[in-house]
Structures are given as C-alpha cells and as structure tokens.
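To whoever is covering the structure queue this week,

Two jobs came back overnight. Logging them here so there's a record in the thread.

Job A:
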Amino acid sequence: MDSILLLLCCEFMMTKFLVDEDVNQKAVRIVDAEQKGFDILYPEQGSLKGAPDHFIQKRAIQEDRVLVTCDRHFVTFGLHPDQVRNGVLWIKPSPRRSQKRICDLLQRFCEFLQKTSADDPYNFKGKMFEISDNGVQVTTEDGKTSTFNF
C-alpha cells in the first residue's frame, strides 16, 4: 500500500503514541512498530479497550504519549493541547474510518510535517493537530490556531 510507504518514512523515533480504539487499528498496525522504533500502545494493551475518554487522556499524560484518536468527544468535551502535554493527533476521516482513509490522511499529515517543520517535524508537544480531508488545523497551548490546506 503506497500510503503506508510514506508513513514509514515519517520517523516517529522516540515518540510514543497511545492509539485510541476508535482509530482503524489495521491502518496503524501495518507499520512494524518494533523494527521502525515506534512505541505504540494499542487499546487492548493496559486495559484501554472500552475505557472512558478521561481514562485514555490520563494514561497518555502519565506515559508521555501522543494521543491518536478519531473520537470527536475528546474535542467536544473541551480537550486542549495543554491537557495532553505530548500532543494530540485527531484524525477526522470523512465519511468513513476505513483503513485506506486513515492511511491517506496519515500520508498527507507526514508530508505536511516535512514541509512545515523540517527542523523538528515530530515534536507534537503542546499541540493539537486536527487532520481532515482538507488539511490540518494546529492549535497550540496558548490558544493560537493555524490552518493549512492539503
């Protein structure tokens, strides 16, 4: 799958992720996490499957992980970048959360990071990235929001 090849080029080395159960797991699992140096915590690990959003958020904070979610509840209940120190990737596929849609959005996101943050593209600290078909909206701890089109 071509979109995964670019994802493999996004070297999230030393970055730890907590993948919420609403994210299509097949899209994330295609990447061989151990060989690529990724540290990804999946829902079935550590009692995360079926856990409420506040528990997922707390776990991401405790383990210094970037929260990866498709769940709009995290945003609608007022999640801000400063509430998950290492950042949030909110993937908003439309209309479905299929493996292909998630892979396509991750590919576009990786391209965006390479273009906009070449010096430190995988530093998500204090930022919430809303990744959609149209582009990326970045909200920082100080409340500033920037929108970038794909």
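Job B:
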Amino acid sequence: MITNKLLKVARAIAEYEGWEFYGADTSSAISGTKSWRNHNPGNLKASPFAVGSMGGFSVFINDEIGFFALVWDLWKKARGETQTKLKGSSTIYDLIKIYSAEPEDIVIKYARFIEQRTGILMTTKLEELIK
C-alpha cells in the first residue's frame, strides 16, 4: 500500500538527489539538474516506466511518471521484490547503502538527511513504510 511514510521517504530522496530547478530559464532542460532534466526525481538507473536513458539514468516522459516510478521502486524494495536483495526487514540505512552506492560517510549523510526531512529513523524497517 502507498502510505504517507513511503511518500515522505520518496520526497526526501528526490530532494537529496537534486530534484529541483537551479536555472532561471525553465524552457531549457540543460539549465536544471540531471534528475530534473530526466524527469527522474530519484535518479533511478532502471525502471520499466522509463522511455529511455541518458548518462546511465532513466528518462521519464514527465515528472509525475518519474515520481511514480520512484515510489513504485521503493514499494517493491520494501516487499523484497527487486534484484537488490532488500526486503521488508531491511532498514532505510540498508536501502540508502544500496541505492546510493556511495562511501560510508555519504551513506550516513544521506540517511540522516532522510531522518531530518521525514522524522523516520534510518533504522526503520522498510516494511514499516508500506503498512
């Protein structure tokens, strides 16, 4: 089930991934961040909802589909239905460690960002996001 907790985490991920517009000219996709240009708030690398890819990241037809794809991806991970080996008993920290594939200090920074934005601890099990 899509819950408020799941949506909060998705929004926090989108914010951390830079899904915001930095340039003044909204008619130019080059002016925004990679996630903005690709309509990919989560900087997903693969998704069945993508219409293509650019620079190793999925491209979506619009922002709504891109955000839906992020929420769907998180939901599938919380159910243990992805190749990442994440499951319901995995934590938000585990999610970020796999999701970001960054060094430990960046993973901690990312997970703390999610905690600050959502009030949901990094030790929260993914299954709690969909209950």
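Note for Job B: Strands lie at 52-54, 57-59.

Please reply-all if you pick these up so we don't duplicate work.
Q.
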